[in-house]
Specification:
Number of helices: 9
CATH class: Alpha Beta
Mean pLDDT: 85
Radius of gyration: 20 Å
CATH superfamily: Nucleoside phosphorylase domain
Low-confidence stretches: none
CATH topology: Rossmann fold
Number of domains: 1
Length: 343
Amino acid sequence: MASRNSLDSPDSYAVAWIAALPIERAAAEAMFDEEHAPPTGFTRHQIDANRYTWGRMGEHNIVIVSLAAGDYGTTSAASTASSLLASLPSIRVGLLVGIGGGIARPDDDRDIRLGDIVVSQPDGTAGGVCQYDLIKAKPGNRRERKGFLGRPPTVLLNALASIQADHERKDSKVPYFLQQMLEKYPKMGKRSKTSPGYTHQGFDKDRLFKASSGHVSGSDCRGCDAAGDVQRDPRDTTDPDIHYGTIVSGNTLVKDAAARDRIIADVGEDCICFEMEAAGLMNHFPCLVIRGICDYADSHKNDRWQRYASATAAAYTKELLAYVPVAEVQETKKALEMLQSVE
């Protein structure tokens, strides 16, 4: 990469991209068309311990930030976002990009596979993200949902409508961006004992189990009973599919099929993914949530697909940004103002 330019002002950055994990951040930074040095005149607010990476994707100048190492969940995400806005009041839209647990229901037209991409899209009463640990038990075993979170900025919802229409006619650019990433950073494609690499892990490593089929101990599913496999039609390409719907978020890592199915029944929406940060952001920071699927939120969960899923989510985000007009971002209310009007 050429020597890094520095933009004249931190106000040149209107888009913030939040990653929870270092592997998610690596995938995000690999999508930059150009990396920047910190902008002239940038001063960090005294409460802000975040570390930023600056750069450009297409026409957008973007700042990337991740949560502190080993620190994830809704509270950590909220403090990262509030520190970010204290130092960068010019930010107008947010993107929360990384990995999540897929809620696959092949019989109900939700054939979600590992490496696929899910995007939070408002639906009826839901703002695209629902906080599942805010569900209240009511008398007579009825449950009431408390935790629907704010909608993403309109400029991002308009971009979703455009990209969906385009994908009806043309293939997604995600495979192209993944290929570009591997050409630019060959190390990301290499597999080793410690890192499976940012590439598709093979159809044979993507098994969906019936909820009743528990995991047999071990770091992978070699010992798990094949009778518990859910039979799915083979896919003829490793290119990821993209799914839109409600993402469920909360502070508990869901890796138990019975708990997963109970939460889905409580939420009562067409949920497609579990994750752990969005609920901390959505009422503090107007953003869209984009997740690559790395497991099925059950006891068979392992880390093999995490890097590839980080990469597919980042590649989709880069593709989506091309549908977001820079001028419209500039007309969007600053995130800080949105926050103050909510409060």
